[in-house]
Amino acid sequence: MADPQIQAIEKFFRSAVQGLEAASSAVISSRAAQLKALTQAELKTQFKRRVGGVSVKNLPVTGRYGAAAYVSVKPKFLGIFQTGGTIQGRSTLLVVRLPEGARLKFPRVGKKGWAAVYQRYKDRFSIVRSGDGWLVLAKVSKKKQVPVYFLTRQVQEKKRLNFTENAEKVGRGMADEIQRLLEGKISG
């Protein structure tokens, strides 16, 4: 038969651990929601079109792992905007629609769309070599041509998103907030 004092101590620590797990889960869920909101706001300010979604998955506390939340941004290509870097075509050229092309309502070009766009507008297009690529000029009048697309092997993207910095900012003070919850001091 186990000592009643040892049983009481074990029961106390089990309840303390459960309280800690509950407080940790609550704080982590709250902070993950804050990170999601910050990231969504940043995506809206950095991109004119809706480019992706932010999801949060709160992971359950198990005997092996403590509280955790998984915050993800999709699609995966958004990672290049977190670090900056070079985007390269595999075996073909990248087709970049220029601002004037967007203003004139020329369509965006996806992975396999350039052939269809070229066939549709080939009477208006002329292509000239420019630097490390080719400019696609479109006739807008008898005497005037404007650049609407740029064909290139690679595009250098600058860093536009601060996901890691936002996560660090949101994560500051989590231990203090968990401690306040355990002490019964609810933070606002």
General description of the model:
By secondary structure, this protein is an alpha+beta fold. It has two domains: 4-83 and 158-182; 85-156, no CATH class. The protein contains six helices and eight strands, in the order αββαββααββββαα. The chain has helices at 4-46, 79-83, 99-103, 114-121, 163-171, 174-182; strands at 53-59, 68-74, 85-88, 94-97, 125-130, 133-139, 145-152, 154-157. The strands form three sheets. The chain has a four-stranded antiparallel sheet with strand order 4-7-6-5. A two-stranded antiparallel sheet has the order 1-2. Strands 3-8 form a two-stranded antiparallel ribbon. 14% of the residues are buried. The mean pLDDT is 83.
Bulk shape: rod-shaped
Physical arrangement of strands within the biggest beta sheet: 4-7-6-5
Q: From N to C, what is the helix and strand string?
A: HEEHEEHHEEEEHH
Number of helices: 6
Structural category is: alpha+beta
Q: What percentage of residues falls in helices of 4 or more residues? A: 40-55%
Give short descriptive properties of this protein.
single chain, 188 residues, 2 domains, 6 helices, rod-shaped
Q: What's the structural blueprint in terms of helices and strands?
A:
Blueprint: H1 4-46, E1 53-59, E2 68-74, H2 79-83, E3 85-88, E4 94-97, H3 99-103, H4 114-121, E5 125-130, E6 133-139, E7 145-152, E8 154-157, H5 163-171, H6 174-182
Helix pairs in contact: 1-5, 1-6
